[in-house]
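User: Last request for today: this protein with 2-acetamido-2-deoxy-beta-D-glucopyranose, please.
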Amino acid sequence: MKGLLFLSLLLFLEGQRSLACPRLCACHGSQVNCSSRSLTPSLLPPTFPAGTTTLLLHNNMLTTLPRGKTLKCLYSLLLFSGSQCL
Ligand SMILES: *[C@@H]1O[C@H](CO)[C@@H](O)[C@H](O)[C@H]1NC(C)=O
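Assistant: Here's the final one, the structure of the complex with 2-acetamido-2-deoxy-beta-D-glucopyranose:
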């Protein structure tokens, strides 16, 4: 019983978190703007709001894309420039 409560709480918190705008980004409707924030792969927010349709990640220092991001509604992802290729 305790385990179930704990699991429910965990799922609840997880749900809350995935709806919130990531601390390092600015959200306008379904657009999440994380551009020009000197983001490295490890600084990239662990979750994005569930209904995110546009994710701006350009002008950062992203050299790899992390795995495990579920963005069902995403149709636009900006990821150009910002990283040095050497
Ligand atoms: C995204 O955020 C950056 C940095 O704050 C800002 O310069 C840019 O205008 C924003 N872009 C959009 C489309 O809101």
